[in-house]
Design a protein that fits this description.
395 residues, alpha/beta, Aspartate Aminotransferase, domain 2, Aspartate Aminotransferase, domain 1, 4-stranded antiparallel sheet, 13 helices, 42% helix, globular, disordered N terminus
């Protein structure tokens, strides 16, 4: 038997403390889910509370609390593998965030002096590790916004000859522009170039397939479209990859050996794992799978289209809207005041958005907004068209 001895206390904590907080937050119109989803399914905080009271560390004991944790971690990997088309669940690595995952992927493939191809819409989670490695030459593919054909052609030119790896965001965190990842992946397979995909803005919203893309690595956070807690993330490792650990230490396996294990996931998960976060992430992934990606995309796209159509006819905004209309992110440039000023004014009216460069100066340089930044609206499945209309009235 696997006892849940303290579940009543965890459940009590959820209804007594967490639920009132969530209800209070619901008064806010929250359009900053590209940074972190604030509204979570009720199952997420409940799962975290349960894990806190019932689980310890997997692989560090044979008692029920350790076995419960080991079972949870396996179930989290299996659910993620099913959602993201990963052949083996052990190739799903639990990380602290997407940046952690991207650092492992990049440092496993790229060395000082190498040449890499990157899109012109990359986040600092990609560009700063490349800079930190030193001496890396970046071939930047600067395709126009919302022009997938030009982007694919740009990658074909960039990966021709002497490129160690290609790195591409799936969807821009600034502009909601979904890059033609299927075509880019096919080009990389044709040229024999390993591909790293940053799925920070697409995981849980758009189809992500490690197997179909043939990517070397796919990185993502747990706290955005997967509705998990902050401090969680995933790295999907492709077949035949030998990732380089960022940390060395205890894994609960091969304890006599002083080298890190050569098998996954142990090779990349040194130290005590975030079991409580993984419990919330598992609940978030299960929620996404139960809703279905198509339903999530439709709901978020409807909200973003309502915002875009309400602002496109105004002379005081420049609107960066995907003509395909399927994204969850909308950037606008206020023409009469700074984005930061307008964001502050919206916050005073109970509307949460983000302003600035969004940790992606390369994307702004590509789109010509590096000097100003933008005001960004980003939706989750919990937003409604009515909220979009309220924001338009406030604006």
């Amino acid at each position: 038997m696997q006892p849940h001895l303290h579940w009543p206390a965890g459940l009590s904590f959820y209804f007594r403390v967490l639920l009132p907080i969530c209800q209070e937050r619901s008064a806010m119109i929250y359009f900053d889910s590209a940074a972190t989803t604030l509204q979570k399914p009720a199952s997420v905080p409940a799962a975290v509370a349960d894990a806190i009271h019932t689980m310890t560390t997997p692989g560090r004991g044979d008692h029920p609390a350790a076995r419960l944790a080991a079972d949870l971690m396996l179930r989290c990997r299996m659910e993620a593998a099913a959602l993201f088309d990963v052949p083996q669940p052990e190739n799903v690595i639990l990380t602290s965030n997407a940046t952690h995952a991207l650092n492992i992927a990049i440092r496993s493939l790229v060395s000082p002096g190498d040449t890499v191809a990157v899109s012109g819409y990359e986040h600092n989670a990609v560009t700063r590790p490349l800079r930190d490695i030193g001496g890396v030459v970046c071939r930047i593919v600067n395709g126009r916004l919302f022009d997938p054909r030009q982007m694919a052609e740009g990658f074909r030119r960039a990966v021709s000859g002497g490129v160690k790896a290609a790195i591409c965001t799936h969807t821009s965190n600034v502009f909601g522009y979904t890059l033609p990842i299927e075509e880019i992946a096919a080009i990389c397979r044709e040229k024999g170039v390993p591909l790293i995909v940053d799925a920070s803005q697409s995981a849980g919203i758009q189809p992500v397939s490690l197997r179909r893309w043939g990517a070397a690595y796919v990185a993502m956070p747990g706290h955005k479209g997967l509705y998990g807690p902050q401090g969680t993330g995933l790295l999907l490792c492709g077949e035949g990859q030998t990732p380089r650990p960022l940390l060395a230490g205890g894994t609960g396996s091969l304890s006599r050996q002083q080298e890190m294990p050569d098998f996954l996931p142990d090779r990349l998960e040194a130290g005590t794992q975030n079991v409580h976060g993984a419990a919330g992430l598992l609940a978030g992934i299960q929620f996404v799978r139960s809703q279905g990606l198509e339903k999530i995309r439709q709901k978020e796209g409807e909200v973003i289209r309502a915002l875009a159509s309400g602002l496109e006819g105004r002379e005081d905004f420049r609107v960066f809207a995907d003509p395909a209309g399927g994204g969850s992110v909308l950037s606008v440039l206020p023409l009469q005041e700074a984005p930061e000023t307008l964001a502050d004014r919206l916050a005073e009216q109970g509307v949460a958005v983000r302003s600035g460069l969004h940790c992606a100066p390369l994307a702004h340089r590509t789109a010509g907004t590096e000097d100003t930044g933008t005001l960004r609206f980003s939706a989750s499945v919990f937003n409604t068209p009515e909220e979009a209309e309220m924001v338009l009235r406030i604006l």
